[in-house]
Amino acid sequence: MAKTRKKEKITGAKALLYSLLEEEVETIFGYPGGAIMPIYNELYDIEDEKLNHILTRHEQGAAHAAQAYAMVTGKTGVCFATSGPGATNLITGIANAFLDSVPVVFITAQVTSTLIGSDAFQETDILGISMPVTKWNYQIKQAEKIPEIISKAFYIASSGRPGPVLIDITKDAQLQTLAFNYQKCTSLRSYNPNIPLNPADIESAAILINHARKPLILAGHGILISKAGKELMAFVEKTGIPVASTLLGLSAFPVKHPLYAGLLGMHGNYGPNVKTNEADLLIAIGMRFDDRVTGDLKRYAINANIIHIEIDRSELNKNVEVDIEIHGDAKEVLKALIDQVKANSYPEWLSEFKLCNKTETDKVIKRECYPSRGEIRMGEIVSLISEKTQGEAIIITDVGQHQMATARYYKFKNPNSLITSGGLGTMGFGLPAAVGAKVGKPNVPVIAFIGDGGFQMTIQELGTILQYQLPVKIIILNNSFLGMVRQWQDMFFDKRYASTELVNPDFVKIAEGFDISARRVKERKTLEISIDEMLSCKKPCLLEIMVEKEGNILPMIEPGSSVSEITLCLSVNKDL
Amino acid sequence: MKKEFTISLFTEHHIGILNQVTIIFTRRQLNIESIAASGSAVKGIHKLTIVVNTTEDLIEKVQRQLEKLIDVLKVFVHTNDEIIYQEIALYKVQTTELMKSDIIEFIVRSSNARFLEITPEYVVIEKTGHKQDTTDLLNKLDPYGVLQFVRSGRIAITKQTKELMAYLKEMDEANNIKQDKDFVAEIKSDL
Question: Which of A132, A251, A556, B61 could disulfide-link to A412, CB 3.0 to 4.6 Å?
Answer without folding.
Answer: A251
